[in-house]
């Protein structure tokens, strides 16, 4: 029986795990395999069944995924809560599985590998952070349909919606880390001019971004010098006087955001901008916490074994604020 899309468990760990499993169950099997292979750095993971709250003797992992490989999943929603004794109990239960490949996956918001995982030094125990999970999901959303194959197909419209909602769920649960050191870099053919004109960033409603402290604009093969601080956002608002009035009444805009957006909507109308009247996501930018680079950061990313330049950013990308503040000359200095 298919699980409901949004988990009804009261305990947060079970709710998070149940929601992830529910979304996976509604996605195509090949996409789930791709997500897991990317997140776990494994290959040939053939996944068929999903089970939340599996019970074995002395072991209750939060979820089990089975097929040619058995994956026991232990989820933590706060850093520092992974314990060795619990993992050892899961491993004992995992040995009863009949599959050849058996993995115990520890999913947690820790910024570094938990001590308990590292101390076990066991290849069957694999830790992934929620940041890693989100990166794997975002990799699917960035697939180019024009160069896709049967093995690397982009998600359908329905699957894209589910993936975006899962990313949003993880963000809303505050399970990702490193917000203050994260810069959201967006392709800015249109957005760079709009930012200079209106001081905001507009995009399609419902677009999901990792929590980030700053926003940077990538245009004409370079990251622009001005990197504003993100002061807030509204997920969807109609850019009309009535639309922002409704958003304000619904509590989606603060008083200062409402006043700022009301002025901007008036200017959009006066300028006969295509944005006027549209339903948009709006990211508010400004304040004194932004920074300015000494020079634009030039893209030096090339295709493998080629001198052909490839874009540094497609849908969006994230870089370290600390690295960017050093004003590197080339984007290669921003790579992980």
How is this structure best described in words?
The chain has helices at 12-26, 29-40, 84-94, 115-120, 130-141, 157-172, 191-198, 241-249, 255-270, 321-325, and strands spanning 47-52, 63-67, 69-75, 101-108, 125-129, 182-187, 200-203, 214-219, 222-223, 226-227, 230-238, 279-285, 291-292, 297-298, 317-320. With 336 residues, it is an alpha+beta fold. The protein has two domains: 12-172, Restriction Endonuclease (3-Layer(aba) Sandwich); 179-334, no CATH class. A hairpin with a 1-residue loop joins strand 2 (63-67) and strand 3 (69-75). Helix 2 (29-40) crosses helix 5. The longest helix has 16 residues, at 157-172. The mean pLDDT is 87.
Radius of gyration equals 22 Å
Task: Give the helix/strand class.
Answer: alpha+beta
What's the shape?
A: globular
Give helix and strand order, one letter per element, not per position. Answer: HHEEEHEHEHHEHEEEEEHHEEEEH
How are strands sequenced across the largest beta sheet?
1-2-3-4-5
The N- and C-terminal alpha carbons lie at a distance of 42 Å
Query: Count the strands?
Result: 15
Q: Detail the poorly predicted runs.
A: none
Under the CATH scheme, the architecture of the largest domain is 3-Layer(aba) Sandwich
Instruction: Please name the CATH topology of the largest domain.
Output: Restriction Endonuclease
Number of helices: 10
Outline the biggest β-sheet.
5 strands, mixed
Q: What is the total domain count?
A: 2
Mean pLDDT across residues: 87
Q: In percent terms, what proportion of residues is strand?
A: 15-25%
CATH uppermost class of the largest domain: Alpha Beta
